[in-house]
Every structure is written in C-alpha cells, then in structure tokens.
Amino acid sequence: MYSADMFESAELGHKLDHATYARHVKTVRPDLLDAQYDLLANKSFPVIVLINGVDGAGKGETVNLLNEWLDPRHVRSVAFGTPTEQGLERAPMWRFWRALPAKGKIGILFGNWYTDPINGRVEHRLSRTELPGAIERLRRFERLLTDDGALLVKLWFHLSKKAMKKRLEELESNKLTRWRVTKADWQNCSKYDQYAKVSERVLRETSTGDAPWVVIDGSDPNYRAITAAKTLLGAIQGRLAEAKANGVEAKRAARRQRSGSSEAATSNMPVFETVDTSRILRDLPFEERLSKGKYETKIVRAQGTLAKLTRTDKMAAHSVVVVFEGNDAAGKGGAIRRVTQALDARLYDVIPIAAPTEEERAQPYLWRFWQHVPRRGRFTVFDRSWYGRVLVERVEGFATMAAWTRAYAEINDFEEQLTEAGTIIVKVWLAVTKEEQLRRFKEREHTKFKQYKITPDDWRNRKKWDEYILAGSDMIDRTSTSFAPWHVIEANDKHLARVRVIEAITARMEAAFKK
Amino acid sequence: MYSADMFESAELGHKLDHATYARHVKTVRPDLLDAQYDLLANKSFPVIVLINGVDGAGKGETVNLLNEWLDPRHVRSVAFGTPTEQGLERAPMWRFWRALPAKGKIGILFGNWYTDPINGRVEHRLSRTELPGAIERLRRFERLLTDDGALLVKLWFHLSKKAMKKRLEELESNKLTRWRVTKADWQNCSKYDQYAKVSERVLRETSTGDAPWVVIDGSDPNYRAITAAKTLLGAIQGRLAEAKANGVEAKRAARRQRSGSSEAATSNMPVFETVDTSRILRDLPFEERLSKGKYETKIVRAQGTLAKLTRTDKMAAHSVVVVFEGNDAAGKGGAIRRVTQALDARLYDVIPIAAPTEEERAQPYLWRFWQHVPRRGRFTVFDRSWYGRVLVERVEGFATMAAWTRAYAEINDFEEQLTEAGTIIVKVWLAVTKEEQLRRFKEREHTKFKQYKITPDDWRNRKKWDEYILAGSDMIDRTSTSFAPWHVIEANDKHLARVRVIEAITARMEAAFKK
DSSP assignment, residue B102? Predict the structure, then answer.
C-alpha cells in the first residue's frame, strides 16, 4: 500500500553542468557563511542537520562539503555507527543527546536516530507491529527538539536501484576507488526494495510541519551539492527572519510582564484546575514517629538489604536512579547519606542539581540529565532533578507555561526510555509541614556549620509555600507512572523518613529483579 | 630493606573520647566550611584529596564525613573500581584526568592512580623491575598537577594486621553489619604483609615536598575523623595564605610587564640558546612542485592505502591521532579534508582547537586534550593541538616561561602514555615561506567565502614571524621522540603537501601494524 511517490521525483536525473554549478557556488557559499555567522550572533536556536539515505548517494561527500563551505569551528559533525559497548549500556537515545549542538551552532548528524529503526525493520529485528511505536517515538523526540526551538533540517539522499548499482560498479572498476566499496554496500544494494519500502513509510510518517524531510536526487554531485546547501541556507535564513520578528514580540511581552499587566500575570496559571491535587501533599500522617532505639535497628537492617541487593548478579542488567525532591529543609541530604552509606563507594554517584550553567542553558532542559544517566551496574542519586522544570521553574516563571506544561509528557517519555533500558527509577518526595520547616530554618541559622544551608532564597521560596505545594501536587499527579511512581514520604520525623526512603528503594529493586 | 617505620606511628592506637571529639568538631567543622568558601572565592587552585589505605580503616566513612562537613555542592567525589571496558580502551590515566576538580573546587578521589600499581605488584601483574618505572610515572604526573598549582592532600588510612582482622570479625559477627564484609576484604587481609611492604615503598617514594603522604591511624573513628579533617583544613588554609601573598607579588610583576621594564621583557626569552634550531623550519625545499596530473593519481592512491589500513583487523588494537600544526595559511584545512575523505565518516573526529573556554582554563592545559583521546579503533585529527602551549602561548606571553618550558616534558609524557595504550601519533608541521603566506593572506581577503579565514590576529601573528619560527623549531627539537616524531612538510605547493601528509600517516600506521 505504500507507493514510492516520495522518491519518484528524486529519480528524474537532475543535473547541473559545471558552469551553472560554479555560478551557484559563487552566491550560495558566501551566503551560507553569512547565515552561519548570523545564527552564531543570534544564539537563539541550534541547527540540527540529519544526513540519511541510500549508500552511494553522496552522504559522506555532503558532510565534507558542508564542512568546507561553513566555518568548521562552529560545526560539529558526528557520525554514529553501530552502538559501542558504552552505548548499549544505556538507553539508545543517550548517545544522540550527547551529540546535540548548542544554540547558535550547527550539528551534522550522520547515521542518526533513523538508522536503527529502518535497518532494524529491514533486518527483521523490529516486527511489523513494533514499527509504528518506533516511529511515534522519533516524532515525539523531534517534537521535543522543535518545541525547544531547534531547527531540524532532514536531508534524505536518494538513488534509484539502477543508479545505486551503477555507482557501486563504477567505483569498483577503478583500482583507485575500489576501497570505497565495502561488502556491506553490496548487501544493502541487494535489499534495495525492502529498504525503499521501509524508508518511504518512515519518511512519510516523520515528515511533520515543523520537521519535514527533503529528498535529494543523489545521482549528480553538482546538483546534489547545490540542493543540499540551498536547503540548509533557506531553512536557516527563514528561521532567523522569524526569530528577529519574534524577538521584538518577546521583548514587548517581557515589558508587559515587568509592568505587571494582567495578561502576563495569567500566563503562569495552571491550565488543569478541575481537581485540587494539592491534597496529595497536605493530607499526610505527619505526626507519626519512630523511637531512636527502633530507628537504629531498622536503618541498619534496611541498609543491609540494600547493600545485598546491589551485590547480586541481577544488578549487572540494571542501573538505579534515585530522585530526591521535596520541601526545602525536608532532610534530603541526611536521607541521601543514609542511602550511600550502604553502597560501595565505587558504585554510586550523587549529582546535586543547581541552576543550569550557560552551557546547559544552550540545550533542551533534559540534556544535562542525560549526561548523568548511569550505565548498567551503577547507582545514581539526584539531589533535585529534571523536576525543577515543573517546580521552581514553573513557580518562579523561569519557564513559560507552554514549556512546563509540555514537560510532564517529555519527562514521562524520558523515564520510560530509561526503564526500558533496565534502569530502576525511584522517585522520592520528602514532605514536611510549614511549621516544621520554620523550626528547621531557625535551627540552621543558629548552628554555625549549617548556616550555608539557609539562604535568602529559602525564605523567599517559603513565602510561595502554597504555589510550591500546588506545583508539587500537579507533578506527582501527572508523572506517577506505572514504571516510575512517586513515593511521597512524610518527613517531620527524620528517622522515619530515612528508613522509608531506603525501604522504597529496596522494594523497587526487588520487584525489578524478580521479573 | 624496607622498614615499616612509616606505618608504625599509625599503630599506636590513638583514641579520642566523645567529649574531646565533640569539642574538636565544634571548631573544625565550621572552619572547614569557611576554608572551602574562601577557596571557592579565590578560585586560584583545585584541591585534590586522595583517599587510600587498608580495607576497614575507614576510607569510605571518611569520604562520607567530608561530604557531610563540607558543602557538597562544591565537592566532587569519584570512586574508581577496576577499569571498565571504556577505561581499558584508552591510556590508563584517561579516567583520572576526567575526574580532576576545577580551580576553586575540591575533588575526592577514592581508588585512584595508586591503586593499580600497588595491587598490581602484590598480585604480580607488575614485576619487581617494573615497579620503579610505575612509581616514577606517578611522581611525574603529580608534579604536573602541583606545578600547575593543584593542592594535593594524600591521606593513607592505616590499620595493623591485628586491628584489620579484628575489625572484619566484628563486622561479620553482627547480623546487621555482616554485608559490609566481602570476600575480597578477607583476601586482602590474608595478603596483609605483601600489601604493607609494597605500600610502604610506594608511599615513601611518592612522598614529595609538594605532595607528601599523611598516614592516619584508622582504628578509632573519632581520632580518624578529626585527623583527616584537620589535615585537609590545614593544607587549604596554608595554601590560601600563600596564594594571598603571591597574588600581591603577581600583580606587581604584571604591572612591571605592562610598563615594559627589562625584567619582564627577558622573562619570556628561551633558556636554551646553545644551538640555533630554527634552521629546521627555514632550510626546506620549498621550490618542489607536483603537477596537477600527477597529484590526482597520487592523492587517490594514498587515500586508497589509508582507507585500506583503517579497515584492517589491526586497527581494533590501535587508535590514530593526527596533529596538525604549522604557519597560518599553510593549508591545514585542505590537508585535513584530503585525509578525512579517505575515512569512513563513522570512524573519525576532527577537533579544532581554539582559545580555551573558562571551564578549560580552570584545569591543567593538557586536560582538554585528554577529553578527546580516542578509544581503540578510532581516528582523531587535531586542527592545532596541545602544542599551542609552546607556540602561541609562549610567543604571546599567555603562559609563563616556567609553564611553557616544563610543557615539553609534560607533552612527551602524555604522548608516551598514549603510545603505550596503542595510539599511533602522527605529528605534522606544514611550513610555508613568509612570501607565500603573504600571497595567501591577500588572496583570502579577496575571496568572499575565504574572508572568515583571515582576521586581524593573522596579521598580528605575521609580524612575529621570527618568534613563531623559533618557537616552532624549539618545539620540533624537543618533542620529536622515537614514539612520536615530527613530520616537517614544505607546503608552498599544496598538492605536494597533501600527498606527503597522507603518506606520513600511512607509513606510521604500517610500521605500527607490523609490530
């Protein structure tokens, strides 16, 4: 049922003679460079160029050409082969996240997130019923990128079956170019029809308004070069013009917000107000207590269980990610130390999350967390996390409403990918009452070595107590999934909380190990 | 012949009762935090804490304690186990370089560069005659760190044989703490005497004036905690006081340099002037030419050989690093593209080296190059490199004379380590005459898409032509080693240069593959 329409126009045998080519180069090449410098000065979005298509259609040559025509100091070309050991130890998207260009830069990705689904289907590693799910993932991932402002330029280099064969034969017949043809090239050639069928479907279903595919006839090097360069140039110029127009609009909006007009004030209101979710965090048995004697037995027992679990063989196929969120002064630091005490120091990392650096701000907000995703066998504790997007960034207005509302789905996707790669995710919210927080703030101010723990920010946040509770409750409501549920733990009694945290971790590990 | 003197005083059974401990904590803990904040504000050096010693002597507990007493947001604790696959694919020091703290920060390294030499000797992976070489390497590495300003605090936690056994037995007898004792602990215990002998020697020979070992009796938790904390505190405070004193001196020196006094002017003069090495770069057959016809055959043939070499099985045990240096406008970019044309795009990376970022400036200058060291099977091209230290940084006075003169040895050590891990290093200097450079600069100014290649910096550098030639010649003289020689290639004729570059690479690869 899939017609090959999408590729047909790329089999018309487009050609450019040398004189025409030279004339085009004269304008395209300097314009491309100008566009690159404007992009660099503008710094408001990254350009992600995907290079895909038929073997022998000039993919590698195009990468070389773009690197020659652009200022290569601001281009990052990354080529992905079959995943290495390192790649296989984490969720498949990990290596692509690491290669994303920062705002203002151009990234050329050669052998990218399309390679594995297409090859997988042709080689039957992916069944017919699994393909739609894989395609949907790619769409969601690219949606995340474009929602964050990225310009995606997706180039597909095409050759007809006949042209592909001819090209390989030509290269092979010349002693000097024979080395360019590998066994894999001929194997792919023999499966041309299957590739065409699968590719055509994937392309059609991932050609979205924000990230369309451009299919380029690869048979003539001149035509191919000019078409690729012009496509990229047009995309960058178009977006820069848009960004300039939006920039004026954004400045106006910021002015309105500063002057406190009602329009700006409402823009950070939650959109889903049908249920009051905030009871999740208010109606907790805060009065429960654990005596010191009982605590000392229980904590050591819980730590023992945790230690044993991390030493079983099952651990080799899994990694553990523990996320700590909660009210300020709820005892996250103390709880984390009770967890790590039970672990071999060579096994774990604790990642404290503060405000993002300049480098991190130039990327989608999930980018910095992907950097810390543990490989199999390892245990990573996040002291605050990617949930900052829907907590502090929402409440303080650092993220637009559009950004934080779409974050719930992006986070769920992220956690689902980790889970499928064997990661056990344990998410803990430590809750204290407003009165208990006040008591702890005051205590911190009076203990010299605890003073660094209390800052003007803490007092400011406290004034927004209700907003933080609302944000926290919404978050728990919208991101408690079957694969990564939230554990809300009342923490007015630190001892009780510490025991419960470790018990939550061990329960999740035991459940995963049983599967 | 090695007496156990070094450990004897750590077997006296030091103890602190709880009241004394509490009194100490009251002052040490806030002081440590103050010192950490001063360090952070000062930002002039990193603190590297090494945690080593006998199992059961409280290493892990000390790491936890320091993380509790310090502000953990500015501490990075890294624990190293046996190298992972990823670690084994590169030179052994690679993973330690990646873990170094930036200036102003504290890094706690647990299981570090001492672990493998000591364990290796005890387990006979390292022979008696190899040990001195391994020790010398550690000294040289630490010397690099301290020369760069790092404060190294090396803590060795000791237990007598009897105390170690008693500690393991105690832990095992309690159902709740039994999990803390592993089989490896008992194995290490049975080899206590060998460990003690090897450790004692390594410690004595690596206890230098700039980076001494502090041996701490690990039998009493209170004593151990206070001693470790006070050692760290004293070291940081001492160095901060020094830095303050030096800061005043440095400012005075900078003032002198700006006002152009003779004292400053001489400080960048080379110290080794007995031989005029600059002939290396002046007396080259610049007039040689290669016709276009011959070039086209030769370049394709050279590329074919290179392509084949990278596809042989031998490549799996090696990686290739190609370094490009040379005069401005000598044609590095064009030569690099002719190299990469012959490579599978999934195989190589091109790393352009510009001025270091702020993050990179907060580390020893070799740090950023270690980040890019390729794993086995891969090919990395550096467009300019670590030689910037002895070229532009020397000529422009960005590095002190002390810094760039010691860089020659540091670079040789670095390249030797890579070579021993299987890396084939090919270093190319592309040389053009002063007249040819002028011709190319002018051409660039008149070609629109080449204008970005010519900046005021290029004209400024050209005025210092002789200084750059002297720096380049010294560099070639002092860093042409048997394992990583320089290839000086005359490049007035671009075609000839490109062919020679590829031939240099293939010759080095063939030689390495034959071994």
Answer: P
Identify which of A112, A122, A121, A116 has the alpha carbon closest to the alpha carbon of residue A153. A112
Mutation choice for A interface testing from B29, B67, B301, B346 by most A CBs within 10 A = B346
Give the amino acid at B273.
E
Tokens, residue A427: 């998410």
Rounded CA-CA distance A362/A357 in Å is 9
- DSSP of B367-395, one letter per residue? HHHHTTPPPTT-EEEEES-GGGGGTHHHH
Return the amino acid letter for B316: A
Q: How would you write A14-81 as a 3-class SS string?
A: CCCCHHHHHHHHHHHHHHHHHHHHHHHHHCCCCEEEEEEECCCCCHHHHHHHHHHHCCHHHEEEEECC
Asked if residue B122 lies in contact with residue B198, where contact means CB atoms within 8 angstroms, the answer is yes
Angle at B353 between CA B349 and CA B355, to 5 degrees: 155
The SS3 call for residue B226 is helix
Cα gap A413→A182, rounded to integer Å? 38
| Gap between the Cα atoms of B214 and B234, Å rounded | 12
ipTM here:
0.71
Structure tokens at B162: 């009897």
Evaluate whether A195 touches A118 at the Cβ level (below 8 Å).
yes
Query: How many residue pairs bridge chain A and chain B with CB atoms within 8 Å of each other?
Result: 117
Distance from CA of A185 to the nearest CA of B (A): 13
pLDDT confidence of residue B406: 93
B111/A345 touch (CB, cutoff 8 Å), yes or no:
yes
Residue A151 sits at φ, ψ, to 5 deg, of -95, 115
State the Cα torsion A244-A246-A248-A249 to the nearest 10°.
170
Would you place residue B260 in the very low, low, confident or very high pLDDT band (cuts 50, 70, 90)?
very low
* Length of chain B as a residue count: 515
CB A433 within 8 Å of CB A490: no
Full-model pTM: 0.80
CB pair distance less than 8 Å for A177 and B300: yes
| Window A:433-462, CB contacts with B under 8 Å | 448-449, 452
> Dihedral angle at the C-alpha atoms of A340, A344, A346, A348, nearest 10 degrees?
-30
Other C-beta atoms lying within 10 Å of the C-beta of residue B32? 21
d(CA A426, CA A488): 11
Cβ contact (<8 Å) for A72 and B350? yes
CB of B312 within 8 Å of any CB in chain A?
no
Residue B384 backbone zone (phi > 0: left; psi -120 to 50: alpha; other: beta) = left
Q: Is B355 on the interface with A (CB under 8 A)?
A: no
Chain B contact for A192, CB < 8 A? no
What confidence tens digit (pLDDT) does each residue in A434-444 have? 999 999 999 98
pLDDT in tens, B208-245: 889 999 999 999 999 999 999 999 999 999 999 988 88
Q: What is the DSSP string of A165-190?
A: HHHHHHHHHSTTTGGG--HHHHHHHH
Closest CA of chain A from B359, distance in Å: 10
Q: Which residue from A minimizes the CA distance to B29?
A: A449
